[in-house]
Design goal:
3-stranded antiparallel sheet; 3 helices; alpha/beta; 9 strands; 31% strand; single chain; elongated; 134 residues
Length: 134
């Protein structure tokens, strides 16, 4: 039983219920939608229809829309086998990474960075997890 149904049962108050988990639409914006036919009537009052995810080179477009730049990962930093994590941090800051990607051989994933000077941390998961890797 959903939390809202439990709340109504205990208090007698019928709360406004909003589902954000059942609907992935084809539009490019978030909007209210009709209850999916697979859900019984009365399950939710409103359904928020989230747009389907879009990715370019494995990355969300909103980063570029905010002005960040696509930066190719040099071939010399890409893994030959297994997974590799590349983490980018600002040289002038100790507040965590600006971007982090996990890549595997043959996949063309890009970093997305604001202008600045950076340091890199490279982690080979095969070395951490043993020869099997993830």
């Amino acid at each position: 039983m959903w939390m809202a149904a439990r709340f109504k049962e205990k208090t007698g108050i019928d709360p406004l219920t909003v589902s954000q988990t059942t609907c992935r639409g084809g539009s490019g914006t978030v909007h209210l939608s009709a209850l999916p036919s697979a859900q019984p009537a009365g399950t939710f009052d409103l359904v928020v229809d989230h747009p389907c995810e879009r990715f370019t080179r494995g990355r969300p477009p909103w980063r570029q829309e905010t002005g960040d730049q696509v930066v190719d990962i040099p071939l010399t930093l890409r893994p030959i086998k297994g997974w590799r994590v590349i983490e980018v941090c600002r040289r002038s800051s100790h507040f965590g990474s600006v971007d982090r990607v996990a890549i595997r051989p043959g996949v063309n994933v890009a970093l997305i960075l604001p202008l600045g000077r950076y340091g890199l941390t490279i982690i080979d998961l095969r070395e951490i997890m043993g020869e099997q890797g993830p």
